[in-house]
Write a structure and sequence with these properties.
Blueprint: H1 5-15, H2 25-28, H3 34-52, E1 57-61, H4 79-97, E2 105-108, H5 114-124, E3 129-134, E4 151-154, H6 157-166, E5 168-173, H7 178-192, E6 202-205, H8 207-213, H9 216-221, E7 234-236, H10 239-261
Parallel strand pairs: 1-2, 1-5, 2-3, 3-4, 5-6, 6-7
Helix pairs in contact: 4-5, 4-10
């Protein structure tokens, strides 16, 4: 029997569906969905890290503008890149020798310069590494040494910073600009105020650079920080010196974390 117009119309009405809110890209990219985007940049990395069983990282900060070789009109002759790559390599090699619960991954901002050097060092050691990239109009783009399953792209700086420090058991800071200073001082502030475990080593590469840039002792003399705050960080001038300082302290920090988590 042929269908009537009313029956055909009713059938169409029954099969017509509106777009689900979580598939509406116009809505998801609007200001009304900002809280959902922020939450996504917390939950999605958390899921990936948990699936991988990740517990510990050593984070490298430093300038995206650092080049692999010497260039004119700069004081950097490529030594910062080479030192970061070698230090990350030695750390990654050592991590491979540790028990699984003590093993860690190198983590960087995922971009060029010092970030690339850190990921490259881990890659040379045959170890995975993390890249927490950020969407920027210039300079930033994922370097080729970040492991595919740990390649992230963030929109919000504060969510990216959270993941830098969430699993961090040590922080290695190479010379850098505003971004590096922001990350360093935020970390020191969190440690000073006991928002982070104080045992986490913070290492500054190239004593000459840092002491020429920031007079921390003058901050003490003005009463702006305490003398004990100078113990929140440590200078080092070579990968070998860095390894000798970091290895026992990193194991101690990991052990303390494991004890608190059990």
């Amino acid at each position: 029997m042929a269908q009537t117009d009313d029956q055909t119309s009713g059938k169409k009405q029954n099969t017509r569906r509106a777009q689900k809110a979580y598939k509406n890209l116009t809505f998801l990219n609007s200001s009304h969905a900002r809280s959902l985007r922020i939450l996504s940049e917390y939950v999605e990395p958390e899921h990936r890290f948990e699936e991988a069983g990740l517990k510990h990282t050593v984070v490298f900060f430093g300038s995206a503008r650092t080049r692999t070789e010497a260039r004119e009109n700069t004081l950097d002759n490529g030594q910062f890149y080479k030192a970061a790559e070698e230090f990350a390599f030695q750390l990654a090699q050592w991590s491979k020798e540790l028990q699984q619960d003590d093993s860690f991954l190198i983590c960087s901002g995922g971009g060029p310069g010092i970030m690339q050097a850190a990921n490259q060092g881990a890659h040379r050691a045959g170890k995975e590494s993390i890249g927490l990239n950020i969407s920027l109009p210039f300079e930033q783009g994922a370097n080729p040494f970040v492991s595919e399953r740990f390649n992230f792209e963030f929109h919000y700086f504060f969510m990216r910073k959270l993941w830098f420090l969430y699993h961090a058991k040590a922080l290695v800071v190479f010379p850098g600009g505003f971004g590096t200073m922001d990350e360093l001082f935020e970390t020191l502030t969190l440690m000073q105020t006991h928002k982070l475990h104080k045992g986490m080593p913070v290492m500054l590469y190239d004593r000459k650079f840092w002491q020429g840039l920031i007079d921390f002792k003058q901050m003490v003399s003005y009463g702006l920080i305490s003398a004990d705050d100078l113990n929140l960080f440590h200078y080092f001038d070579s990968p070998e010196e860095g390894m000798a300082y970091l290895k026992p302290r990193l194991l101690e920090t990991i052990a303390a974390f494991t004890s608190e988590s059990s």
